[in-house]
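Task: sequence design from structure.
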């Protein structure tokens, strides 16, 4: 994909929607996109409520035209570790819409215990889900953009995103969901 004409970012999470947490990811991704494709149309969607149906509705709304869609946040498994947290459902929403999407699971030992990266195509859009923490979202978006430019398939994009996120922390492994694990060690 040499020229991208439209990029949509959908920030997720009730904390973003309610203004409790500032959405810094959309602006950072905007900068990456405009540096690569200066004439690109950039859309930052209004954050949907934190549930699968609302997130799917936004994906359907913005998936009609060719381009790239980044979803930020809701990629972790926070509720598994703390019952008071909202269930992270962005990755579930994407997988329900794109059952053959490629997924990568990241397990870390630094407090960011789990993230599921999902990459696939919905109608005319390449969909990439990213974790919410800014350092991870930006690293993942950079890697996705580079992999897309290089013509990587969805699995290749997902692996590149996972590797970029892992490089931000001393994670112990990157695991291909549904196949044998690939170990990554960072000293």
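Answer:
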């Amino acid at each position: 994909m040499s020229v991208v004409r439209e990029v949509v970012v959908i920030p997720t999470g009730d904390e973003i929607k309610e203004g409790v947490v500032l959405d810094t990811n959309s602006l950072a991704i905007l900068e990456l996109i405009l540096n690569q494709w200066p004439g690109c149309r950039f859309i930052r969607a209004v954050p949907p409520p934190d549930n699968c149906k609302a997130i799917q509705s936004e994906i359907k709304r913005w998936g009609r035209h060719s381009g790239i869609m980044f979803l930020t946040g809701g990629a972790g498994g926070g509720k598994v570790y703390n019952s008071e947290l909202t269930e992270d459902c962005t990755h579930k929403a994407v997988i329900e819409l794109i059952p053959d999407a490629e997924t990568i699971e990241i397990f870390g030992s630094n407090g960011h215990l789990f993230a599921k990266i999902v990459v696939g195509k919905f109608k005319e859009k390449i969909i990439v889900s990213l974790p919410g923490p800014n350092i991870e979202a930006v690293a993942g978006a950079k890697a996705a953009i580079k992999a897309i430019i290089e013509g990587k398939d969805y699995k290749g994009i997902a692996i590149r995103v996972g590797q970029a996120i892992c490089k931000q922390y001393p994670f112990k492994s990157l695991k291909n969901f549904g196949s044998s694990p690939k170990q990554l060690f960072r000293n």
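The mean pLDDT is 84.
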